[in-house]
From TrEMBL:
This is Anaphase-promoting complex subunit CDC26. It is found in: Nucleus. Pathway: Protein modification; protein ubiquitination. Belongs to the CDC26 family. It comes from Anser cygnoides (Swan goose). Keywords: Cell cycle, Cell division, Coiled coil, Mitosis, Nucleus, Ubl conjugation pathway. Signal peptide: none annotated. InterPro entries: APC_suCDC26 (IPR018860). GO terms for biological process: anaphase-promoting complex-dependent catabolic process; cell division; protein K11-linked ubiquitination; regulation of mitotic cell cycle.
Amino acid sequence: MLRRKPTRLELKLDDIEEFEGVRKDLEGRKKQREEAEAAAGEEAAAAATALALCTEHKSREQLINDRIGYKPQPKAGGRAAHFGTFEF
């Protein structure tokens, strides 16, 4: 494999100005996004506390089942259903 001399990169004033402009733009967007998220977070927290006060007290398992749409069906019978007609 042939080796060559490293390429020299020069940083120009235009490049620095462009970088600063892009960085300021990104920081401004980030700041706006954080402010919007903070406002939305406060509204969501207020709604969540109101919802928590209004809903029935459910167990953690019931809340998860409701969220994922799982509706457990009770199993029919007791021991006899598992073992048939055997008596122990």
